[in-house]
Write a structure and sequence with these properties.
Blueprint: H1 2-14, E1 16-22, E2 28-34, H2 39-50, E3 58-63, E4 69-71, H3 78-81, E5 88-94, H4 107-122, H5 130-145, H6 169-181, H7 188-200, E6 210-213, E7 219-225, E8 228-233, E9 236-242, E10 246-252, E11 255-262, E12 266-273, H8 277-295, E13 305-306, E14 316-317, H9 324-332, E15 341-343, E16 357-359, H10 377-392, H11 417-430, H12 436-445, H13 449-453, H14 469-502, H15 508-514, H16 517-547
Parallel strand pairs: 1-5
Antiparallel strand pairs: 1-2, 3-4, 3-5, 6-7, 7-8, 8-9, 10-11, 11-12, 13-14, 15-16
Helix pairs in contact: 4-7, 5-6, 5-7
Length: about 550
């Protein structure tokens, strides 16, 4: 009895997995899930912890062992989606940026979107002019440390914060000037709201760039925004296509196709090449979900989409959530009291700003990394040294007068490992600091020393081993689907032939076929002898069974 109980308890423990989800303020939420728990269960646990009702804008992201990012699918098992070994590490992020973030119903939702856009600004995904960058940073400063106080905020206080991938003294002075003269008296909520309103007007608001190459081999970044499909090359937005102009998206291997129908029935096809097939599939799925969310009127209009023209080939995917219009209508019906938000009071900035508003459900941010990162003395000296070298070559400005390149930012969809190393080296030479998110996600995808010491499992084998297994499996499945379809078509044709030759149905369609010379020749020269041969064989088998 005791051994049976112990074996049962051990089996139940094996079916439980520890999950850690990094929140937007860099705090962590840990929980235990069952083996068959769906993604929706984990997401609901997280939203309950955050006291979040307007949750359709958010999602859970994770990185597989190949450094490819994915959005957790809520209709599938969490364990089956995670290719890494437990415990699982994921990130809570904004998946669908609100079309108008200032119009969100609850302040806690606006606060979480504010944290996400602040991350985008810090990691170089939100591109803007220097003047806009200074204003956005000043709003962040006002929200975190409150009004300027000469007694608490010494000269150069804004330089202790890291708002962007790179800084310049001129930009820091501009940020401090706006904070001192234009934002006095604004509460944290008001500053965050103004920040959202300003960010919404930028061309790269909501951009989650996927690195690709165009047909000429030029580097490009593809992204999906609340308003349409965007292509960025260098400092310029070379394509912007509204969602109602996108007719189809598909992919084959590393190649992504976007079908566009514009005015005067002008149809074009944009072709781009992703670093890997997995990255291309991720790009395609993101495009399908974003188009469904922003374009459709009702979730009942969502259809299963295939990546190929042939239904037995390629991937099939269906968006499973609500669409933007339904989310807005649902938000308007929220009647609860707004979640309590605490204010910790303004403090002087070093070593970290203490004025942070903490929604119920979020950990206290006093000791967390939510606040705008503060540059250490050694790092500041390194930046100063780089700045001195840049002064001599007239390249001090961190953000150009027009735009700065997304190539200096952390890419949400990682490129191949060797390309990522080159990117990091280029960023180091350009003077861009390595980001917190980059370090953490590298740690999340790096095996521990104990794991590295163990013999490699099936997933750890090289290109000559199990790495080719997924491709072989896909080929086998494709062949099996083709055979199944062929057999099905032959079966349907056989049924139609039997109906034509043996049934008494006298419809006009059947009558016309039976009266054709070809059918009469087939019937008397081939079908009737074949039928007599089958009948003879069946009688022989029956007589043999009777005799025995």
């Amino acid at each position: 009895m005791l051994s049976r109980w112990m074996s049962g308890s051990s089996r139940s423990l094996e079916r439980e997995y520890n999950c850690t989800v990094r929140l937007l303020d860099d705090s962590e939420y840990s929980c235990t899930i069952q083996r068959d728990a769906k993604g929706q269960y984990l997401f609901d646990l997280l939203c309950h912890h955050l006291n979040l009702l307007e949750k359709d804008y958010f999602g859970i992201r994770f990185v597989d062992p190949d450094k490819q990012r994915h959005w957790l699918e809520f209709t599938k098992s969490v364990v089956k989606q995670m290719r890494a070994q437990p415990p699982f590490t994921m990130c809570f992020r904004v998946k669908f940026y609100p079309t108008d973030p200032a119009a969100l119903k609850e302040e806690i939702t606006r606060y979480l979107v504010f944290l996400q856009i602040k991350r985008d600004l810090y990691h170089g995904r939100l591109l803007c002019k220097t003047s806009d960058a200074a204003l956005l940073a000043a709003y962040i400063l006002q929200a975190e440390i409150g009004d300027y106080d000469p007694g608490k905020h010494p000269e150069g206080y804004s330089s202790k914060f890291q708002f962007f991938p790179k800084h310049s003294e001129k930009l820091e002075r501009k940020i401090a000037e706006i904070h001192k003269t234009e934002l006095s008296g604004q509460t944290p909520a008001t500053s965050e709201l103004n920040f959202l309103r300003k960010a919404q007007t930028l061309e790269t608001y909501g951009v989650d760039p996927h690195p690709c190459k165009d047909v000429s081999g030029n580097a490009a970044f593809l992204a999906f925004t609340p308003f349409g499909f965007v292509v960025l090359q260098g400092n310029k937005r070379v394509h912007f296509i509204k969602w109602n102009e996108v007719t189809k998206m598909k992919f084959e291997g590393k190649t992504f196709y976007l079908y566009v129908s514009q005015k005067e029935e002008k149809k074009i096809v944009l072709t781009y090449f992703a670093p890997t097939p997995e990255a291309c599939k991720h790009l395609w799925k993101c495009g399908i979900e974003n188009q469904a969310f922003y374009k459709l009127e009702k979730s009942s209009q969502v259809r299963t989409v295939s990546s190929s023209n042939l239904f037995f080939k390629g991937s099939r995917f269906r968006y499973s959530g609500r669409v933007a219009k339904e989310v807005m209508e649902s938000s308007a019906k929220i009647k609860r009291e707004p979640p309590e938000i605490h204010s910790a009071g303004a403090e002087c900035c070093p070593p970290r700003p203490l004025s942070r508003r903490v929604p119920a459900g979020l950990e206290s941010l006093r000791d967390s990394a939510h606040s705008t990162p503060v540059r250490s003395a050694s790092h500041g000296e390194a930046l100063a040294a780089r700045g001195a070298r840049a002064d001599s070559s007239e390249r001090v400005a961190v953000i150009a007068d027009e735009n700065y390149s997304p190539a200096d930012s952390v890419l949400p969809t990682p490129v191949a490992e060797h390309s990522l190393e080159l990117l990091l080296l280029a960023r180091h030479l350009n003077g861009a600091p390595c980001s917190i998110e980059e370090e953490k996600e590298a740690e999340a995808s790096t095996p521990t020393a104990a794991e590295a010491a163990e013999p490699p499992g099936p997933r750890a084998l090289g290109p000559g081993g199990a790495a080719q297994a997924p491709q072989v499996n896909k080929f086998v499945l494709s062949v099996l689907r083709l055979l199944l379809v062929t057999v099905g078509l032959l079966f349907v044709l056989l049924l139609l032939l039997i109906v034509l030759t043996e049934s008494d149905l006298d419809t006009a369609f059947f009558r016309d076929i039976r009266q054709t010379p070809e059918f009469e020749q087939f019937h008397y020269q081939y079908f009737c002898p074949l039928r007599r041969w089958f009948a003879c064989k069946i009688r022989a088998v029956v007589s043999l069974l009777i005799d025995t």
